[in-house]
Structures are given as structure tokens and as C-alpha cells.
Fold this protein.
Amino acid sequence: MTVRFLGKVGPKAHSTQTVWRPEAVYLRRMFLSPLTILPAARGLLLAIVLMAVCLPSVAAEFALPDTISIAPGERREVALTGVIEVGGATTIRIRYTPGVVRIVSARGGDLTSQYCEQITVRDSIISGTEAIAVLTCPFSRPAIGDTVCFLTLEGIGGPDRIGQITIVSISASDIDFPVSRSAGGLVNRTGPIIGGQRGEVAITGNYPNPFAERTRIVFRVPIAEPVRMTLRTIQGRLIRAWSVDAVAGENSYELTILPAEAASGMYILELRSIAGTAYHSVRIQP
């Protein structure tokens, strides 16, 4: 292709009108267009990056069966389903009513988004009506309406008959996702109140209460077995854990707490046995 000289044409040589020949127009488009397009492309790319960084993540959603009916000492496995955007190491915090139900264990597997066969469960008793279970699994995949894991629940024969299980937070791959919805999880405990019936699991009381250093705990279980007892603060911090070889029926245990172990205040005493779990509040007062 021959590039012709681009000059001014017309009857007057000094005319200010410039006429571009076709070949020159082609070259101008070929060389100048990228210079015009590149800034726009850079702007579009920057906008896309900013949108990806600034747009909030989609909140996680969870669902349990609408109503879970369970008797004292009965164990049931229920499916927790939900939507989680990211896989990796996950931590799920679940709030529940400890006087009605407790979370015994959790499991995952190939059919769930949590690959751990046995998911680590750590619970802390906040009060007689509120507790938190923390589920951790180092390997998981995103879940889109899938089964996240299976929870094994146990009915507790406390004074309340209605409880609630609610997923309160989740983090995956060090990203915290807000929980926009936690559906279902209403727990209906059937059967009698254990604390009012002889031969079932119950902490009848402790005497004296409040106490300074020593108190006698009275409890009963339906069968002879070693039971597990723990004393925690209302924030869930463990003060003491011990085992007692209990007989069928009524038992007693002398508990001594030194001032260096626990300050004055309210504490939660927990009794766990094969037949169930019972809670009782105690007060240390020098």
C-alpha cells in the first residue's frame, strides 16, 4: 500500500480545510483507536474489581426441621441444611436451650458439605436458658441448599418444655458470613419434668446454697453408673470436672471449692449420665 502525501487542496493554497485521503483515514484508525480504547478498558476493569471487592457476600442461610419433639433421655438425629458460599475450614455457632435439649454430637461425610465424619463440638452453658455449641470442621465445600451436617440431640428433662435451636454465626476459610435466616429448630420436649419425678435424672439441690467453700449436692439417676459432673461460670468457663460412681436412686456428693478456684457469684452445675442431663444453679458467697 502506498501512503500518499496529505496536504491542503483547493483553489487557495492557504485554506485551513484539511482533506484526509482514504488510506490516511485507515492508518489513523489503526494507530489511534487503541489509544482511545485502552483508557476505557482500564476503567471498565477497575470498575469490575471494585465491584468484586466492595459488594457484600451473600449471607448464609440455615434450616432445621420446623418442630423437633423429643423426650427426656431420648436421642434424635436431625439434618441441618443451608447455603454457604465458601468451603474450607468452617466454624458454626449454634444457640440452644440447655434445660430442654442438648447437642450431643455432629457428623458430616461425603453426602454433606462438611467432610468431617466426626465434627468437633464444644459447648458452653451461658445460663439455665441459653447455651452455645461451637462446631468446627477443617474440610468442607460450599453448600447450596444441601445438607450441611447431621446433629444428634438429646432431650433434657428441665422445667421448660419448649426450647429453640438457632444458628447464630458461621465462618468459612477465615471469612465471617452473616446468618440472614435460621429457620425451624423449635424443640418440644415431651414427657414429665425429670426434676419432679423419682427415679429419673435430676439435681435435687445443694445444701447450703449459697455456700462459702463446701456444699452437699443431692442428685438422682435411674440406674447405677459413673456420672460426669461439671461446674462452670455463667459465661461457660470450666471451674471443675469430676466423676461420681452413682447408685440407682438418690445420691449425694460433698463439693469443696477453694477461694482461689472461684470468686463469689452464680455458677451452673451440670450432671450428665446415660439416661440424660440435668442442670442446677449454685451460688458461691464467702
Q: What stands out?
A: The longest strand covers residues 143-155.
